[in-house]
Write a structure and sequence with these properties.
The complex is a heterodimer of chains A (351) and B (154). The longest helix of chain A is centred in the N-terminal third of the chain and has 10 residues, at 2-11. Chain A starts with a helix and ends with a helix. In chain A, 6% of the residues lie in helices and 49% in strands. Chain A has helices at residues 2-11, 339-348, and strands at 25-28, 33-42, 45-53, 63-69, 76-81, 87-95, 101-110, 114-124, 134-135, 143-144, 149-151, 154-157, 160-164, 171-178, 180-183, 189-192, 205-209, 215-221, 228-234, 242-246, 254-257, 263-269, 282-288, 294-300, 307-314, 317-324, 331-338. Chain A has a 4-stranded antiparallel beta sheet with strand order 1-27-26-25. Chain A is mostly beta strands and 351 residues long. Chain B has 154 residues and is mainly alpha-helical. Chain B has one domain (2-153). Chain B is globular, with a radius of gyration of 16 Å. In chain B, helix 2 packs parallel to helix 8 (133-153), helix 3 packs antiparallel against helix 6 and helix 7 (109-122) packs antiparallel against helix 8. Chain B is built from 8 helices and no strands. Helices cover 80% and strands 0% of the residues of chain B. The chains are: A mainly beta (351), B mainly alpha (154). The A-B interface holds A 29-32, 52, 54-55, 59-60, 77, 80, 328-329 and B 3, 57, 60-61, 63-64, 69, 72-73, 76-77, 80.
Chain lengths: 351, 154
Protein backbone atom coordinates (compact mmCIF):
# COMPACT_ATOMS: atom_id res chain seq x y z
CA UNK A 1 0.00 0.00 0.00
CA UNK A 2 2.80 2.37 0.94
CA UNK A 3 4.66 1.53 -2.26
CA UNK A 4 1.50 2.17 -4.24
CA UNK A 5 1.08 5.55 -2.56
CA UNK A 6 4.67 6.47 -3.29
CA UNK A 7 4.30 5.35 -6.90
CA UNK A 8 1.16 7.42 -7.34
CA UNK A 9 2.89 10.45 -5.86
CA UNK A 10 5.78 10.15 -8.25
CA UNK A 11 3.61 9.83 -11.34
CA UNK A 12 1.48 12.90 -10.75
CA UNK A 13 2.52 16.53 -10.37
CA UNK A 14 1.90 17.81 -6.83
CA UNK A 15 -0.74 20.36 -5.88
CA UNK A 16 -3.02 19.97 -8.87
CA UNK A 17 -6.74 19.28 -8.49
CA UNK A 18 -8.16 16.61 -10.77
CA UNK A 19 -11.62 17.25 -9.31
CA UNK A 20 -13.49 20.33 -10.44
CA UNK A 21 -12.21 23.29 -8.42
CA UNK A 22 -14.32 26.24 -7.37
CA UNK A 23 -12.49 29.55 -7.17
CA UNK A 24 -12.33 31.46 -3.91
CA UNK A 25 -11.18 34.81 -2.55
CA UNK A 26 -9.06 35.40 0.51
CA UNK A 27 -11.03 37.54 2.99
CA UNK A 28 -8.79 37.56 6.08
CA UNK A 29 -5.16 36.74 6.82
CA UNK A 30 -4.19 39.13 9.60
CA UNK A 31 -3.12 36.53 12.17
CA UNK A 32 -0.54 33.85 11.51
CA UNK A 33 -3.12 31.09 11.97
CA UNK A 34 -6.67 31.93 10.91
CA UNK A 35 -8.83 28.82 11.10
CA UNK A 36 -11.94 26.90 12.24
CA UNK A 37 -14.58 28.81 10.33
CA UNK A 38 -18.34 29.16 10.39
CA UNK A 39 -20.80 31.20 8.38
CA UNK A 40 -24.39 32.24 8.97
CA UNK A 41 -26.99 34.58 7.50
CA UNK A 42 -28.26 36.95 10.18
CA UNK A 43 -30.64 39.83 9.44
CA UNK A 44 -29.68 39.86 5.76
CA UNK A 45 -25.93 39.94 6.46
CA UNK A 46 -23.42 37.15 6.10
CA UNK A 47 -21.48 36.70 9.33
CA UNK A 48 -18.24 34.74 9.32
CA UNK A 49 -16.43 33.62 12.45
CA UNK A 50 -13.04 31.97 12.94
CA UNK A 51 -10.17 31.66 15.36
CA UNK A 52 -7.12 33.91 15.27
CA UNK A 53 -4.03 32.32 16.79
CA UNK A 54 -0.36 31.75 16.14
CA UNK A 55 -0.60 27.99 15.60
CA UNK A 56 -3.06 25.14 15.07
CA UNK A 57 -2.92 23.96 18.67
CA UNK A 58 -0.23 25.56 20.79
CA UNK A 59 1.05 29.08 21.22
CA UNK A 60 -0.76 32.21 22.33
CA UNK A 61 -4.39 32.03 23.36
CA UNK A 62 -6.76 31.95 20.40
CA UNK A 63 -9.42 34.61 19.91
CA UNK A 64 -12.70 34.44 18.03
CA UNK A 65 -13.13 37.00 15.26
CA UNK A 66 -16.48 37.87 13.66
CA UNK A 67 -16.65 39.48 10.21
CA UNK A 68 -19.72 40.72 8.34
CA UNK A 69 -20.57 41.26 4.70
CA UNK A 70 -23.70 42.23 2.82
CA UNK A 71 -22.64 40.68 -0.48
CA UNK A 72 -19.77 38.29 0.24
CA UNK A 73 -17.39 40.64 -1.59
CA UNK A 74 -16.39 43.14 1.08
CA UNK A 75 -15.90 41.93 4.65
CA UNK A 76 -15.46 44.10 7.72
CA UNK A 77 -14.48 43.12 11.27
CA UNK A 78 -17.44 43.20 13.63
CA UNK A 79 -16.30 41.67 16.93
CA UNK A 80 -13.43 39.95 18.70
CA UNK A 81 -14.10 37.56 21.58
CA UNK A 82 -11.40 36.60 24.04
CA UNK A 83 -11.17 35.05 27.48
CA UNK A 84 -8.19 35.62 29.75
CA UNK A 85 -5.90 32.57 29.98
CA UNK A 86 -8.15 30.48 27.75
CA UNK A 87 -7.65 29.41 24.15
CA UNK A 88 -10.95 29.94 22.33
CA UNK A 89 -11.57 28.02 19.13
CA UNK A 90 -14.14 26.44 16.85
CA UNK A 91 -16.76 29.16 17.14
CA UNK A 92 -20.06 28.02 15.66
CA UNK A 93 -23.06 30.22 14.99
CA UNK A 94 -26.67 29.33 15.61
CA UNK A 95 -29.85 31.34 16.07
CA UNK A 96 -32.12 30.67 19.01
CA UNK A 97 -35.87 30.44 18.34
CA UNK A 98 -36.29 33.91 19.91
CA UNK A 99 -33.90 35.37 17.31
CA UNK A 100 -30.84 35.72 19.54
CA UNK A 101 -27.57 35.00 17.78
CA UNK A 102 -25.36 32.47 19.56
CA UNK A 103 -21.74 31.42 19.33
CA UNK A 104 -20.59 28.17 20.88
CA UNK A 105 -17.09 26.77 20.85
CA UNK A 106 -14.23 25.13 22.68
CA UNK A 107 -12.30 26.76 25.49
CA UNK A 108 -9.02 25.18 26.52
CA UNK A 109 -6.88 25.83 29.55
CA UNK A 110 -3.60 25.05 27.83
CA UNK A 111 -0.38 25.41 29.80
CA UNK A 112 1.92 23.03 27.93
CA UNK A 113 -0.69 20.36 28.61
CA UNK A 114 -4.46 20.53 28.51
CA UNK A 115 -5.87 21.12 32.01
CA UNK A 116 -9.47 21.69 30.99
CA UNK A 117 -11.79 21.53 28.02
CA UNK A 118 -15.09 23.27 28.12
CA UNK A 119 -17.81 24.33 25.76
CA UNK A 120 -18.56 28.05 25.93
CA UNK A 121 -21.50 30.05 24.71
CA UNK A 122 -21.88 33.76 23.95
CA UNK A 123 -24.99 35.65 22.90
CA UNK A 124 -25.55 38.71 20.76
CA UNK A 125 -28.51 40.71 19.50
CA UNK A 126 -26.64 42.30 16.61
CA UNK A 127 -23.45 40.31 15.98
CA UNK A 128 -21.33 43.21 17.20
CA UNK A 129 -21.79 43.19 20.98
CA UNK A 130 -21.41 39.80 22.67
CA UNK A 131 -21.80 38.52 26.18
CA UNK A 132 -18.53 37.11 27.60
CA UNK A 133 -17.94 33.46 26.60
CA UNK A 134 -19.29 31.37 29.52
CA UNK A 135 -19.15 27.65 30.29
CA UNK A 136 -22.31 25.74 29.39
CA UNK A 137 -24.03 23.75 32.19
CA UNK A 138 -25.41 20.25 32.48
CA UNK A 139 -22.70 18.36 30.58
CA UNK A 140 -19.98 16.54 32.59
CA UNK A 141 -16.65 18.38 32.95
CA UNK A 142 -14.09 18.39 30.11
CA UNK A 143 -16.76 18.52 27.46
CA UNK A 144 -16.74 20.06 24.05
CA UNK A 145 -19.25 19.94 21.28
CA UNK A 146 -18.34 20.91 17.77
CA UNK A 147 -21.72 21.94 16.52
CA UNK A 148 -25.20 22.85 17.76
CA UNK A 149 -28.34 22.49 15.64
CA UNK A 150 -31.80 23.78 16.46
CA UNK A 151 -34.88 21.71 15.77
CA UNK A 152 -38.19 23.15 16.97
CA UNK A 153 -37.66 24.44 20.52
CA UNK A 154 -34.51 22.39 21.28
CA UNK A 155 -30.94 22.53 20.07
CA UNK A 156 -29.00 19.28 19.85
CA UNK A 157 -25.28 18.62 20.18
CA UNK A 158 -22.99 15.65 20.68
CA UNK A 159 -20.17 16.63 23.05
CA UNK A 160 -17.04 14.58 23.51
CA UNK A 161 -16.42 14.16 27.23
CA UNK A 162 -13.14 13.19 28.89
CA UNK A 163 -12.01 12.54 32.44
CA UNK A 164 -9.18 14.14 34.40
CA UNK A 165 -6.00 12.40 35.54
CA UNK A 166 -6.21 12.54 39.36
CA UNK A 167 -2.43 12.87 39.81
CA UNK A 168 -1.59 15.50 37.19
CA UNK A 169 -4.91 17.25 36.66
CA UNK A 170 -4.44 16.80 32.91
CA UNK A 171 -7.40 15.99 30.66
CA UNK A 172 -7.47 12.31 29.65
CA UNK A 173 -7.93 13.29 26.04
CA UNK A 174 -7.54 9.81 24.60
CA UNK A 175 -10.37 8.35 26.65
CA UNK A 176 -13.43 10.13 25.37
CA UNK A 177 -17.07 9.21 25.18
CA UNK A 178 -20.08 10.82 23.58
CA UNK A 179 -23.79 11.22 24.12
CA UNK A 180 -26.56 13.33 22.65
CA UNK A 181 -27.53 16.42 24.66
CA UNK A 182 -30.24 19.01 24.12
CA UNK A 183 -30.90 22.54 25.33
CA UNK A 184 -33.67 25.11 25.19
CA UNK A 185 -31.47 28.17 25.75
CA UNK A 186 -27.93 27.25 24.67
CA UNK A 187 -26.63 27.37 28.23
CA UNK A 188 -28.36 24.55 30.15
CA UNK A 189 -28.19 21.01 28.75
CA UNK A 190 -29.74 17.63 29.46
CA UNK A 191 -28.72 14.22 28.14
CA UNK A 192 -30.93 12.38 25.66
CA UNK A 193 -30.61 8.59 25.72
CA UNK A 194 -27.52 6.64 26.69
CA UNK A 195 -23.85 7.33 25.88
CA UNK A 196 -22.71 5.94 22.53
CA UNK A 197 -20.52 2.85 22.39
CA UNK A 198 -17.81 4.20 20.08
CA UNK A 199 -14.04 4.56 19.79
CA UNK A 200 -12.25 6.50 22.59
CA UNK A 201 -10.85 8.91 19.98
CA UNK A 202 -14.14 10.34 18.75
CA UNK A 203 -14.10 14.06 18.11
CA UNK A 204 -16.04 16.57 16.06
CA UNK A 205 -19.70 15.58 15.79
CA UNK A 206 -22.69 17.25 14.24
CA UNK A 207 -26.39 16.57 13.92
CA UNK A 208 -28.71 17.70 11.17
CA UNK A 209 -32.43 17.27 10.54
CA UNK A 210 -34.51 16.63 7.48
CA UNK A 211 -37.80 18.54 7.09
CA UNK A 212 -39.66 15.51 8.47
CA UNK A 213 -37.49 15.75 11.64
CA UNK A 214 -35.33 12.69 11.00
CA UNK A 215 -31.89 13.14 12.54
CA UNK A 216 -28.68 12.48 10.60
CA UNK A 217 -25.36 12.69 12.38
CA UNK A 218 -21.65 12.51 11.68
CA UNK A 219 -18.83 11.82 14.15
CA UNK A 220 -15.11 12.19 13.49
CA UNK A 221 -12.91 9.39 14.77
CA UNK A 222 -9.20 8.62 14.98
CA UNK A 223 -7.86 11.81 16.57
CA UNK A 224 -5.91 14.41 14.59
CA UNK A 225 -5.31 12.40 11.45
CA UNK A 226 -8.83 11.08 11.06
CA UNK A 227 -9.34 8.51 8.32
CA UNK A 228 -12.36 6.93 9.95
CA UNK A 229 -15.68 8.22 11.18
CA UNK A 230 -19.25 7.32 12.04
CA UNK A 231 -22.60 8.27 10.63
CA UNK A 232 -25.95 7.69 12.25
CA UNK A 233 -29.66 8.26 12.11
CA UNK A 234 -32.55 8.57 14.52
CA UNK A 235 -36.16 9.58 14.79
CA UNK A 236 -37.87 11.69 17.46
CA UNK A 237 -37.37 11.70 20.44
CA UNK A 238 -33.82 10.71 19.37
CA UNK A 239 -33.14 8.60 22.44
CA UNK A 240 -32.11 5.61 20.34
CA UNK A 241 -29.75 6.25 17.45
CA UNK A 242 -28.33 3.82 14.89
CA UNK A 243 -24.62 4.60 14.46
CA UNK A 244 -22.39 2.85 11.91
CA UNK A 245 -18.78 3.25 10.68
CA UNK A 246 -18.23 5.57 7.73
CA UNK A 247 -15.62 4.59 5.17
CA UNK A 248 -14.03 8.05 5.12
CA UNK A 249 -12.36 10.29 7.67
CA UNK A 250 -13.66 13.69 8.70
CA UNK A 251 -11.85 16.91 9.53
CA UNK A 252 -13.86 20.01 10.33
CA UNK A 253 -16.95 18.63 8.63
CA UNK A 254 -20.11 20.48 7.74
CA UNK A 255 -23.30 18.99 6.42
CA UNK A 256 -26.15 20.65 4.56
CA UNK A 257 -29.50 19.24 3.52
CA UNK A 258 -30.09 20.55 0.00
CA UNK A 259 -33.56 21.31 -1.38
CA UNK A 260 -33.30 18.27 -3.68
CA UNK A 261 -33.25 16.11 -0.52
CA UNK A 262 -29.57 15.15 -0.67
CA UNK A 263 -26.83 15.68 1.89
CA UNK A 264 -23.83 17.83 0.96
CA UNK A 265 -20.76 17.14 3.08
CA UNK A 266 -17.72 19.42 3.18
CA UNK A 267 -14.64 18.12 4.98
CA UNK A 268 -10.88 17.80 4.97
CA UNK A 269 -9.68 14.86 2.93
CA UNK A 270 -6.29 13.35 3.65
CA UNK A 271 -3.94 12.37 0.80
CA UNK A 272 -4.36 8.64 1.35
CA UNK A 273 -8.14 9.04 1.04
CA UNK A 274 -7.97 10.87 -2.23
CA UNK A 275 -8.46 9.03 -5.50
CA UNK A 276 -5.62 10.96 -7.11
CA UNK A 277 -3.00 10.10 -4.48
CA UNK A 278 -1.76 13.67 -4.17
CA UNK A 279 0.34 14.52 -1.19
CA UNK A 280 -1.62 17.30 0.49
CA UNK A 281 -4.95 17.37 2.29
CA UNK A 282 -7.70 19.43 0.63
CA UNK A 283 -11.20 20.67 1.42
CA UNK A 284 -13.56 18.47 -0.55
CA UNK A 285 -17.33 18.46 -1.00
CA UNK A 286 -19.23 15.27 -1.60
CA UNK A 287 -22.74 13.96 -1.81
CA UNK A 288 -23.32 11.73 1.19
CA UNK A 289 -26.01 9.07 1.03
CA UNK A 290 -27.93 7.95 4.07
CA UNK A 291 -26.37 4.50 3.68
CA UNK A 292 -22.88 6.00 4.25
CA UNK A 293 -21.74 5.90 0.62
CA UNK A 294 -20.46 9.09 -0.96
CA UNK A 295 -19.53 10.69 -4.25
CA UNK A 296 -17.00 13.50 -4.57
CA UNK A 297 -18.36 16.62 -6.28
CA UNK A 298 -15.79 19.42 -6.08
CA UNK A 299 -12.82 20.76 -4.16
CA UNK A 300 -11.90 24.24 -3.01
CA UNK A 301 -8.44 25.73 -3.56
CA UNK A 302 -6.76 24.34 -0.48
CA UNK A 303 -3.71 22.58 0.85
CA UNK A 304 -2.50 21.13 4.10
CA UNK A 305 -4.09 22.75 7.14
CA UNK A 306 -7.58 23.35 5.76
CA UNK A 307 -11.37 22.71 5.87
CA UNK A 308 -13.97 23.67 8.54
CA UNK A 309 -16.28 25.14 5.90
CA UNK A 310 -19.18 27.31 7.00
CA UNK A 311 -22.15 26.92 4.68
CA UNK A 312 -25.12 29.19 3.92
CA UNK A 313 -27.76 28.51 1.32
CA UNK A 314 -29.18 31.79 0.07
CA UNK A 315 -30.88 32.77 -3.20
CA UNK A 316 -29.98 29.49 -4.95
CA UNK A 317 -26.34 30.07 -4.12
CA UNK A 318 -24.23 28.07 -1.70
CA UNK A 319 -21.96 30.47 0.20
CA UNK A 320 -18.84 28.88 1.67
CA UNK A 321 -16.27 30.26 4.09
CA UNK A 322 -13.32 28.01 4.93
CA UNK A 323 -9.63 28.17 5.71
CA UNK A 324 -6.56 26.95 3.94
CA UNK A 325 -2.81 27.43 3.96
CA UNK A 326 -2.23 27.15 0.21
CA UNK A 327 -1.10 30.78 -0.12
CA UNK A 328 1.46 31.00 2.64
CA UNK A 329 -0.25 30.60 6.02
CA UNK A 330 -3.75 29.47 7.08
CA UNK A 331 -6.14 32.21 5.98
CA UNK A 332 -9.89 32.61 5.55
CA UNK A 333 -11.42 32.23 2.09
CA UNK A 334 -14.88 32.80 0.71
CA UNK A 335 -16.48 31.07 -2.24
CA UNK A 336 -19.92 30.61 -3.72
CA UNK A 337 -21.45 27.98 -5.97
CA UNK A 338 -24.78 27.85 -7.79
CA UNK A 339 -26.91 25.12 -6.25
CA UNK A 340 -28.06 24.10 -9.74
CA UNK A 341 -24.42 23.35 -10.59
CA UNK A 342 -24.19 21.05 -7.58
CA UNK A 343 -27.32 19.22 -8.77
CA UNK A 344 -25.75 18.80 -12.21
CA UNK A 345 -22.53 17.46 -10.69
CA UNK A 346 -24.54 15.03 -8.61
CA UNK A 347 -25.80 13.60 -11.91
CA UNK A 348 -22.41 13.56 -13.61
CA UNK A 349 -20.35 12.43 -10.63
CA UNK A 350 -16.59 12.81 -10.42
CA UNK A 351 -15.14 14.83 -13.26
CA UNK B 1 -8.12 48.69 14.00
CA UNK B 2 -10.55 49.72 16.75
CA UNK B 3 -10.09 46.45 18.62
CA UNK B 4 -6.31 47.01 18.48
CA UNK B 5 -6.75 50.49 19.97
CA UNK B 6 -8.82 49.01 22.81
CA UNK B 7 -6.39 46.18 23.46
CA UNK B 8 -3.12 48.09 23.22
CA UNK B 9 -4.15 51.60 24.25
CA UNK B 10 -1.73 51.84 27.20
CA UNK B 11 1.49 50.57 25.47
CA UNK B 12 0.58 52.52 22.35
CA UNK B 13 0.09 55.76 24.30
CA UNK B 14 3.27 55.11 26.28
CA UNK B 15 5.23 54.59 23.04
CA UNK B 16 4.05 57.91 21.65
CA UNK B 17 4.75 59.76 24.91
CA UNK B 18 8.29 58.39 25.06
CA UNK B 19 8.96 59.29 21.43
CA UNK B 20 7.74 62.85 22.08
CA UNK B 21 9.97 63.10 25.15
CA UNK B 22 13.02 61.84 23.24
CA UNK B 23 12.40 64.23 20.36
CA UNK B 24 11.97 67.24 22.63
CA UNK B 25 15.20 66.29 24.45
CA UNK B 26 17.05 65.89 21.13
CA UNK B 27 15.97 69.43 20.25
CA UNK B 28 16.60 71.07 23.64
CA UNK B 29 19.18 68.83 25.38
CA UNK B 30 20.86 66.72 22.68
CA UNK B 31 23.07 64.83 25.14
CA UNK B 32 20.08 63.57 27.14
CA UNK B 33 18.20 62.86 23.93
CA UNK B 34 21.08 60.72 22.66
CA UNK B 35 21.35 58.89 25.96
CA UNK B 36 17.63 58.13 26.01
CA UNK B 37 17.82 56.90 22.43
CA UNK B 38 20.76 54.70 23.43
CA UNK B 39 18.66 53.19 26.23
CA UNK B 40 15.80 52.58 23.79
CA UNK B 41 18.13 50.81 21.36
CA UNK B 42 19.54 48.76 24.23
CA UNK B 43 16.02 47.70 25.22
CA UNK B 44 15.34 46.93 21.54
CA UNK B 45 18.44 44.74 21.52
CA UNK B 46 17.25 42.83 24.60
CA UNK B 47 13.77 42.44 23.11
CA UNK B 48 15.29 40.97 19.95
CA UNK B 49 17.46 38.59 21.99
CA UNK B 50 14.23 37.23 23.49
CA UNK B 51 12.37 37.21 20.17
CA UNK B 52 15.09 35.76 17.98
CA UNK B 53 16.65 33.24 20.30
CA UNK B 54 14.08 32.40 22.97
CA UNK B 55 10.53 32.77 21.66
CA UNK B 56 10.39 33.62 17.92
CA UNK B 57 6.61 33.07 17.88
CA UNK B 58 6.23 36.55 19.36
CA UNK B 59 7.51 37.99 16.07
CA UNK B 60 4.17 36.78 14.67
CA UNK B 61 2.26 39.21 16.87
CA UNK B 62 3.77 42.09 14.88
CA UNK B 63 2.37 40.61 11.66
CA UNK B 64 -1.15 41.30 12.88
CA UNK B 65 -0.48 45.01 13.24
CA UNK B 66 1.00 45.91 9.89
CA UNK B 67 -1.14 47.63 7.29
CA UNK B 68 0.95 46.30 4.37
CA UNK B 69 0.24 42.78 3.10
CA UNK B 70 3.78 42.48 1.74
CA UNK B 71 5.18 43.36 5.17
CA UNK B 72 2.97 40.71 6.78
CA UNK B 73 4.21 38.16 4.25
CA UNK B 74 7.78 39.12 5.11
CA UNK B 75 7.19 38.63 8.86
CA UNK B 76 5.25 35.35 8.56
CA UNK B 77 7.18 33.69 5.75
CA UNK B 78 10.73 35.02 6.11
CA UNK B 79 11.46 36.71 9.46
CA UNK B 80 9.68 34.06 11.55
CA UNK B 81 11.27 31.17 9.68
CA UNK B 82 14.75 32.72 9.73
CA UNK B 83 14.34 34.33 13.14
CA UNK B 84 17.63 33.04 14.53
CA UNK B 85 19.99 34.81 12.18
CA UNK B 86 17.75 37.68 11.01
CA UNK B 87 17.05 38.49 14.65
CA UNK B 88 20.79 38.17 15.24
CA UNK B 89 21.40 40.92 12.69
CA UNK B 90 18.85 43.12 14.43
CA UNK B 91 20.61 42.50 17.75
CA UNK B 92 23.96 43.52 16.31
CA UNK B 93 22.46 46.63 14.69
CA UNK B 94 20.77 47.65 17.95
CA UNK B 95 24.00 47.10 19.90
CA UNK B 96 25.90 49.33 17.46
CA UNK B 97 23.25 52.06 17.66
CA UNK B 98 23.08 51.89 21.47
CA UNK B 99 26.89 52.23 21.69
CA UNK B 100 27.04 55.06 19.14
CA UNK B 101 24.30 57.14 20.79
CA UNK B 102 25.64 56.67 24.33
CA UNK B 103 29.12 58.07 23.71
CA UNK B 104 29.94 61.67 24.63
CA UNK B 105 30.97 62.41 21.07
CA UNK B 106 28.83 63.44 18.13
CA UNK B 107 26.74 60.60 16.75
CA UNK B 108 28.54 59.13 13.70
CA UNK B 109 26.74 59.57 10.39
CA UNK B 110 26.31 55.80 9.79
CA UNK B 111 24.49 55.59 13.15
CA UNK B 112 22.26 58.51 12.16
CA UNK B 113 21.46 56.90 8.80
CA UNK B 114 21.07 53.46 10.37
CA UNK B 115 18.63 54.68 13.02
CA UNK B 116 16.63 56.67 10.47
CA UNK B 117 16.46 53.65 8.17
CA UNK B 118 15.40 51.39 11.02
CA UNK B 119 12.64 53.78 12.10
CA UNK B 120 11.38 54.06 8.53
CA UNK B 121 11.40 50.27 8.17
CA UNK B 122 9.33 49.67 11.29
CA UNK B 123 6.78 52.40 10.49
CA UNK B 124 4.51 50.01 8.49
CA UNK B 125 4.13 47.93 11.65
CA UNK B 126 1.45 50.42 12.64
CA UNK B 127 0.35 49.73 16.20
CA UNK B 128 3.20 47.25 16.54
CA UNK B 129 5.60 50.22 16.39
CA UNK B 130 3.26 52.58 18.29
CA UNK B 131 2.67 54.52 15.07
CA UNK B 132 3.37 57.46 14.63
CA UNK B 133 6.15 57.10 17.25
CA UNK B 134 8.84 56.11 14.66
CA UNK B 135 8.11 59.24 12.63
CA UNK B 136 8.26 61.43 15.76
CA UNK B 137 11.61 59.86 16.68
CA UNK B 138 12.78 60.54 13.14
CA UNK B 139 12.46 64.26 13.92
CA UNK B 140 14.67 63.77 16.98
CA UNK B 141 17.30 61.97 14.90
CA UNK B 142 17.11 64.75 12.32
CA UNK B 143 17.82 67.35 15.03
CA UNK B 144 20.82 65.34 16.25
CA UNK B 145 22.13 65.27 12.67
CA UNK B 146 21.52 69.01 12.35
CA UNK B 147 23.33 69.54 15.64
CA UNK B 148 26.27 67.49 14.32
CA UNK B 149 26.50 69.61 11.19
CA UNK B 150 26.29 72.90 13.13
CA UNK B 151 29.01 71.75 15.53
CA UNK B 152 31.25 70.73 12.63
CA UNK B 153 30.72 74.10 10.91
CA UNK B 154 31.45 75.96 14.16
Amino acid sequence: MTLLLVACQEERPPFSYPLRTISSEKIWDRAFHNAFVDLIEFRGQLLCTFREGDGHVTGKKGKIRVLSSSDGEKWKPLALLRKKGIDLRNGKFSIRPDGTLMLTGLGTDYRGKVYEWFTWVAYSEDGRTWTPPRRVRGIPSNNWFYDLTWQDSFAYAIPMIAGTDPLTGVVQSRQRYMALFRTRDGMNYEQVGNPFDLSPLVGEALVRFTPNKDMFLLIRDGGGHSVSAYYGQGRPPYDSLAILPLDHGLGGPNLLYLPNETWLLGTREWPEERPDCLNEAVTVFMQLQEDGTYRRLFVLPSEGDTAYPGLVLKDKMLHIAYYSGHEGWPSIYYSKVEVDSIYAWQEIGVQ
Amino acid sequence: MLDQIQQYLIPWSAGIMISLLVTVLCMRKPLYGRRLLAILFLLGMLANVYLAWIYPRDYLVFGQFTFLDSYRRFIYLILFRQAYWMGGLLILAHAYLAFSYWRNEAVPTPAIIGAALFLLLITPLGFGAAFPAPLILLFGIFYLYKNNVERAEA
